[in-house]
Design brief:
The complex is a heterodimer of chains A (288) and B (264). Chain A has 288 residues and is mainly α. Chain A has helices spanning 4-31, 47-54, 56-86, 92-105, 109-120, 126-133, 144-173, 176-184, 189-200, 202-217, 221-226, 238-248, 252-285; strands spanning 33-34, 42-43. The chains are: A mainly alpha (288), B mainly alpha (264). The interface between A and B is large, with 89 and 90 residues.
Chain lengths: 288, 264
Amino acid sequence: MKQRPWLFLLPALLLVSLSAFIPLITVINYSQLTILPGTEPYFAGLENFVAILEDEAFQGALGRQILFSFLVLITEIPLGLGLAICMPKEGPWVGVCLVLLGIPLLIPWNVVGIIWRVFTRSDIGVLPAFFDWFGYSYSISSSTFDAWWTVLVMDIWHWTPLVVLICYAGIQAIPKEYYMAAKIDRASPWKTFRYVTLPNLRGVLIIAVLLRLMDSFKIYAEPFVLTGGGPGSSTTFLSTYTSRMAIGGFEMGRGAATSLIYFFIVILFSFVIYIVMLNLGQGAGGDQ
Amino acid sequence: MNKKYYLILFLVLLVIPLYWMINMSFKPNSEILNQLTFYPHEFTTANYQEILTSEFWRAGYLNSIIMASMNVVIVTVAALPAAYAFSRWDFRGDKHLFFWFLTNRMAPPAAFLVPFFILYSNLNLIDTYWAVALAHCLFNLPLAIWILEGFMSGIPEEIDEMAFIDGHSFTSFCWNIFLPLIKPGIAVTAFLTFMFSWVELLLARTLTNEAAQPITVTLTRSLGAGGWDWGVLAAAGVIAMIPGAIIVYLVRDLLATGFSMGRV
């Protein structure tokens, strides 16, 4: 009887060992070595890590990544939550909205990049033409500012639907009686939202925030296609930097060290946000 | 009810870039490059013909569909018992194990490229369907366990106990009672799993060469190769969206109930 849970977990554990554990061990192994073509690898200790942390290109990519993920979270989560509240609760329009919201999520990520590229290119795009009309010369290939907000808008376009879907699920699960009670008490719409909707959405909001945090940290294909990381390196994020080190790089040990630092940062941020959100919810809405 | 209009506004903004690509896919390149038109003046299906008659593109689509479906099956089969174990039993280290599973969802694929390549080379899996279908378990399996665990915890344990008292064996209980109950949960899981596998580029590109190259990779490779044939590219993009649209349409009812069970 005691072994039963492990028996049930066995397939998952086998798969994870193949797809995550063995590769992770390999990365840790490489990160400790200096591997130069034509010579035996030798032990480097923490050298690789120090070299990466001191690399200005890494620091730049990390800074941009944190700013980007921060902006993504503070726009997509409130926007998605607000739109989920606007969704119809039942009827034929629910299906229509769900299908429309689902479409951006199922477009291959590089196609998302392509869509936005043809949408924003200065020769064939409609957006530059639109801004030109207002006398603003818009160019993602030369202006850092334009490139940045275009990548951000693209991400909002791409991922807010996921937040809407998750929040909508949470809202649908709140018992109708709670809203009846709020109505009887003549609570204002804001009070209803604050003391009925929000506390009950704590669980799904944690999921939405964590998913968006993890995935925005992993963003790769879309900016790669849209801007190629430029102008200069202004839209080069952590995964672009890492894959450049890992595949195109001259040195595998460095690539492995970058990967580990990257992985560690994602786990750290997710963990901190998870703990903060759990406590936040407890303090504010736990009493309802 | 003016809050409806916010939603409509957002959906309209959602559709505009899509419309622009569909619009472009029906234009000849001369029209794309020379003037800004809001609908195709010289309507043509040449771009689609070029793609649909090319073995190169067709193989890409087929490979993608096969690999994403394989991934959905593998992930669901492994995640169901695991999620059941997490939702029903307390055992030593269950919380830690659950969080450890989740950390794999956080793993950036970029970090695993090289070891994946080495591991799958040693297993002789490079450029096969299995390589990508297994590699995508890295981020899909934790997600599936996470979601299914939520759905299963939403079903009272009394239902299990009642079934066993009624003389159901464990298999018969799973098959006749439990699985039908969490069907919407499985639909949501399968939807998200297929979605994340269908759209992934980085691992798929590293682990395939030609035989098993998925459509996302085909698109990137043709992006890099020589000039920009905007019309064909747009048409390819539109076709790459179609399987997604069909799937959302097919599972929309299950999604609606699945999402409204709420424990996503």
